Fold this sequence. Notes:
Elements: E1 12-17, H1 21-31, E2 36-42, H2 46-56, E3 60-62, H3 65-71, E4 76-79, H4 86-95, E5 99-103, H5 110-123, E6 127-130, H6 137-148, E7 154-163, H7 177-180, H8 184-199, E8 205-213, E9 240-247, E10 252-258, E11 267-275, E12 279-285, E13 292-295, E14 305-307, H9 314-326, H10 338-356, E15 360-361
Parallel strand pairs: 1-2, 1-4, 2-3, 4-5, 5-6, 7-10
Antiparallel strand pairs: 7-11, 8-9, 8-15, 9-10, 11-12, 12-13, 13-14
Helix pairs in contact: 1-9, 4-5, 5-10
Amino acid sequence: MTTPGFSADRPLRVGVVGVGWAGQQHLDRYLARPDVEIVGIAGMEAEVLAALAAEHDIPLAVPDWQTLLEQGELDAISVAVPTFLHAPIAIAALDAGVHVLSEKPMARTAEEANAMVAAARRAGRVLQVAFNQRHRGDLAALAEQVASGALGRVYHARASWLRRAGIPTLGSWFTNREMAGGGPLIDLGVHVLDATLRIMGEPRVLTVSAVTHSELGPRGLGGSGSDKQAVGSAYEVEDFATVLLRLEGGASITLESSWATHRPSGDEIALTLYGTDGGADVSVVDYALTPGRYFGTAPDGEADLELEPLQSGGHAQVVDEFLDAIADPASWAEHDGSLGASRTRIIDAAYRSAEAGTEVKLDDDARAPLGHEQEVGA
């Protein structure tokens, strides 16, 4: 059904499932690549589906992902749909020999993520997860300082993504526990978790302790006014979460995420790093590229620097790295989704910690991911 990697005589045949904002980000980058042919798209939004197919001359536009897989003769597929569909679509595609790029969060639970990794290994195909925020230029400037040794050993990081009123439509699939897997922790927190662990050099997480709160959403407060698919759900997830991660070697991370809380307006992504030889931080409001700061060891502040953002990649870089992995068959085994599964494992443990009111040791977790191999770009 598929041809391994890129072919000299034809472009890679790609399909996209999901025609919302994320799916269109994937689609736009694929369309910009001369080595890719978009052969089909699938989505429930009939008008959007038809408009995209007409605008880009896409031959196959169907409402269900099964038809796209059956009729598309695909080499690769992007999955940008509600979280509860990530695992079934990815596993079916991988079993059909199709490479998969899944939107974050990878899955609702560690079990689902592990099943996706197992499918990638079974099929010998690439499985990647779209962590687009890791490619922000301001976060990359902090990563550059860490990599240069300017901070020494980073012993603590404080990461957050906070909103005042940003619940993605009250009553949508986002607020349904079964469909979404959770609230802002799995939706926003996983982004800053991924970026922080990447910047710190992928330290091993030993324990997770979390508390979640649901104070505004159940009262009908904190909605963003966006127009996500309504399913008539009650508010079943948290609207604020705080997590403490203990890392191998003694370092730590605190992570906060909120969809709705009493704080300044807007989206704020923030990361602070404390190191033995220096510190660094950045606070991004409403996604604008923002200079970071480096704090040197001089007590008078003379060693402090402003860190200009580097070039941002976003979803374009995510898609390019996915295609680069497919183009190198010798590397496919290294890109089996294990890194994404490790992120899901931590989020899963955080929810179980919050429910039980106790710390969770990841080493003792029988549902640990199958491996720690890093995905491309890690």
